[in-house]
Each structure stands twice: as structure tokens, then as C-alpha cells.
Design brief:
By secondary structure, the protein is an alpha/beta fold. The chain contains 16 helices and 20 strands.
Length: 463
């Protein structure tokens, strides 16, 4: 298998000058993969971090050169084939005519697309791929989960055989310059996100659509038929694959009937005890329907698939119950980095007394969240960061009648939420914003919130 891969990659490279653009987790993975196959092939590493050249492994490699520092993108122009890492934005970069932008994702899909189930969307990707992996492991001996969820694709090549099922969580950054698509592609939803990485919301959406734009008539595209943005966009894409829609609306191929508690799958009826499903919220029913769509294509027994779904354990930071203090239930939904995600969270948790919103401002439109809060029963709102300031201004100019508080210190949010909420109510941390103003990522932010809850509970026991 490796010899065949080496030959295919060699034909693809075709003696071109290669640069690995961005030397983070995925960039390093690309370097090791190429170096293992081609020990003496000249490679360049381009990154803003000038310290990279001092790493022992790289200093001992006589076939590596560097394009480092603030001008690394300009220096990158001298190369024919670019393996771009997801974190590098090219929105202000003019691609030379003789240069091809590729990536680890593109290379992996070129080699293994027929074995891949790719999942993308603004929200719900990690939950959906993890649920899918949990289910498929009950039917196949070798199921691998890779991509945006944390494991670079090329690191699993040695574990693969022709029967391996690969579930690939794909971000817009990974798809942006992809020239190949997975055999089964899933598009969950499209909302404003990552606008700091793209020149427009349309550019972000078009990057997502690369999950299907390179499919053939023998492939499958699964889309959320209730998502108006997806339905609008699909009309302007050149999609050759079979199109399968899921959702609550009647015209979908796979539907959920909340009244009769059953799925309709291409006219087949399948009852489901929703009370046994471990994921909260209507949005997770959508995620389950996406998984059912994949399993139906794979011709798996869907009754067994649904039974298997009920033993799934939810991922952290996604409507995660943390603890109860003075009768107040605390929920961590740090994954919510856009207003639509926070709205779904509020619709999923009962008796919310206080919601905590705000964080790093990436220029997203918050009108939908302000309108939603203005129309629902009033709750206490704790606001943080630059997004909090925007929301405060918007809410004070709206019809919102509830209490609004701005907090400068993240460490005080649990104390303040406890003061504002009553026994029997819930406190929901669902920021609707990125975390980069104070934290490395949403996981770090969520973990800090959990620790604050636990600290406050310990303090309460001592009083």
C-alpha cells in the first residue's frame, strides 16, 4: 500500500518546489509524512515564527529550507506547490499563476476519497462525527475519526486498509483549497463564522461547498433541508452527486415527527424514544438525522443504529451539565461561538434564570440574538468582552425588559449568576462569541468556567 501511495504522490508532486505553509500541528504532520516518503526531497517551511529553524529535528535535515518571519507569505510565492495549514489565512494573498494551493486535506482526499465520510457545517460537526463514529464502530472493525476534531489525516495512513471507514471532520479552512471531495459528504448548516479569516461571508460558504463540488455521480451529498442558506446555495453549485435532504419539513427525504415520535426515512417509519437520547436540544435531532442519512447509504439496520445512539456520551462544552449550587443548575456551552448556537442552547435548557454572553468580537451580526432575547420571556443577562458591549448597546435600544449586567472580570461570573438566579432555575454559559480575547480556545474557556463553578461550590460548603 505504501509503495502505491508513494508512486501516486510522486506523480502528483511532479518535481515541483514544495512549501509547507504554517508549521503548527497539521504543518508538522505534513512535513513528517512527506519526509518519511521522500527523505531527500527539498522542502521549505514557511511560518511567521522565526524560532522554527532552531528546532533540532529541522537543523539536522539537510533538505529543508525556511521562509520565516513577518514576510513569510511573500517569501512563499517562490514555490510551485503549497501545502497550506488550516490556520493560515490567504484572504489578502495574491496567488501567482504558476502556484497551486493544496493542503493535507486535499492530499488525503486525493488518495482516499472513496473511503471517506466528510462532515462540515458551522456548528455540530464534532458532535455529529463522534456520534457517527460511536455507531459505525458497532458495524465495522476499522473506523477512524480524523480532521478538525484533532487528529491530522495523514497520521492515520499506516492504520488504513481497503475496508477502513474514515470519518473526516472538515472545517472551512481545510476545505478552502480542496480539489477533491469525500464519497459521502454531509453539510449540517451555514451561519456567519470565521469572518476574520475570509473577505466575505460568501467566501466562507463557498469554502464549505468544496466538500461536494468535486464529487462524481457515484457519490452522495447529505444536506440539512431546513437550512435556508444551504437551500439557496445548493442552487448555484455544480453538484453531480446524489442529493439527500433531512429535516423537520415535509419535503425532506429523512424527517422527524415530534408529535408521533418517529423518523420517516424515504417513506419508512421508525419509532424512537427521544427521552433516551443523551443529547439535549432540537439541533441534536438534526445531527442524529444526518447520521441516519449516512447509515442509510451504508445500508445499515437503522433500528439498531438508533438503539446504538442512545449509549453515546456527549462531548464536553456542549450543553454540558456542570453542577448544582443552591438549587441552581449550571450548564457549560462554551462551544457556542455564534448567536445561532446560543439561541439553540436557550431553547434546549428549561427554566433559565441567567445567561452569560460575550467575548471576542469578529464582526458577526448579532441582530438575530438581540431580536430573540427581546421576544422571549425576560431572563438575567450577564455580558462579557467587546461582544458584550455590542449586545448591551443593542439590547438597551431594543424592547428587552429584563436585567442586563456587564462584568469586566470573568472570574466573577459564577458569583454574580448565583446572586441573580433562583433555586430551580438554570444558569447557562453560552457566549455566542469567540474566546480569543481572554483564552486560547473555547475548550480553555469552558474548563475555566467549570473550575469557577466547582470553586464556588467548595466555598459554599465551607460557609
Amino acid at each position: 500500500m505504501i509503495d502505491n501511495l508513494k508512486l501516486r504522490i510522486q506523480e502528483y508532486i511532479n518535481n515541483r518546489k514544495i512549501v509547507i505553509l504554517g508549521f503548527g500541528k497539521e504543518g508538522r504532520s505534513t512535513y513528517h509524512f512527506l519526509r518519511d516518503l521522500f527523505p531527500e526531497y527539498q522542502l521549505c517551511i514557511a511560518d511567521s515564527n522565526i524560532e522554527i529553524s532552531q528546532e533540532i529535528e529541522l537543523k539536522e535535515d539537510p533538505y529543508v529550507e525556511f521562509a520565516l518571519g513577518e514576510d513569510y507569505l511573500i517569501l512563499n510565492q517562490n514555490y510551485d506547490l503549497v501545502f497550506k495549514s488550516p490556520g493560515v489565512s490567504l484572504k489578502s494573498y495574491s496567488i501567482p499563476d504558476n502556484q497551486e494551493i493544496s493542503s493535507q486535506t486535499d492530499l488525503f482526499l486525493m488518495l482516499f476519497s472513496k473511503q471517506c465520510i466528510g462532515v462540515t457545517g458551522t456548528k455540530g460537526k464534532s458532535t455529529t462525527v463522534s456520534l457517527l463514529q460511536h455507531i459505525l464502530k458497532g458495524f465495522y472493525t476499522n473506523v477512524l475519526l480524523i480532521g478538525n476534531i484533532g487528529l491530522p489525516a495523514l497520521e492515520v495512513v499506516a492504520e488504513m486498509d481497503i475496508d477502513t471507514k474514515v470519518i473526516y471532520e472538515l472545517s472551512s479552512h481545510q476545505l478552502e483549497f480542496a480539489h477533491h471531495s469525500p464519497h459521502i459528504a454531509v453539510l449540517l448548516n451555514l451561519y456567519q463564522e470565521h469572518l476574520d479569516h475570509y473577505n466575505s461571508y460568501k467566501d466562507y460558504r463557498m469554502a464549505k461547498w468544496n466538500i461536494a463540488n468535486n464529487q462524481s455521480k457515484d457519490d452522495f451529498l447529505i444536506i440539512n433541508g431546513d437550512d435556508y442558506q444551504i437551500i439557496d446555495d445548493v442552487e448555484i453549485q455544480t453538484i453531480k452527486s446524489s442529493n439527500i435532504k433531512y429535516g423537520f419539513k415535509e419535503n425532506n427525504d429523512i424527517k422527524w415527527d415530534s408529535k408521533d415520535k418517529e423518523f420517516s426515512i424515504n417513506s419508512r417509519k421508525l419509532s424512537f424514544d427521544i427521552s433516551g437520547f443523551p443529547l439535549l436540544g432540537e439541533h441534536n435531532i438534526y445531527n442524529l438525522m444526518a447520521v441516519l442519512s449516512v447509515c442509510d447509504i451504508l445500508k445499515l439496520p437503522l433500528k439498531n443504529v438508533l438503539e446504538k445512539s442512545q449509549s453515546f456520551i456527549s462531548l464536553p462544552h456542549r450543553l454540558e451539565f456542570v453542577d448544582e449550587i443552591n438549587g441552581i443548575k449550571f450548564y457549560n456551552d462554551s462551544i457556542a461561538t455564534i448567536p445561532e448556537a446560543s439561541i439553540k442552547a436557550m431553547e434546549s435548557i428549561k427554566d433559565i434564570g441567567t445567561i452569560i454572553l460575550g467575548g471576542f468580537d469578529r464582526g458577526i451580526d448579532y441582530k438575530i440574538l438581540i431580536d430573540y432575547l427581546s421576544q422571549r420571556e425576560s431572563i438575567n443577562i450577564l455580558l462579557l468582552g467587546d461582544v458584550g458591549k455590542r449586545l448591551q448597546k443593542g439590547l438597551e435600544s431594543s424592547d428587552y425588559k429584563g436585567n442586563i449586567y456587564f462584568i469586566n472580570d470573568f472570574n466573577q461570573i459564577v458569583i454574580e449568576a448565583t446572586k441573580l438566579s433562583s433555586s430551580g432555575q438554570a444558569c447557562l454559559f453560552s457566549p455566542a462569541a469567540a474566546s480569543y480575547d481572554s483564552f486560547k480556545n473555547f475548550e480553555e474557556r469552558g474548563n475555566e468556567f467549570i473550575e469557577l463553578v466547582k470553586q464556588f461550590k467548595r466555598l459554599q460548603k465551607l460557609m
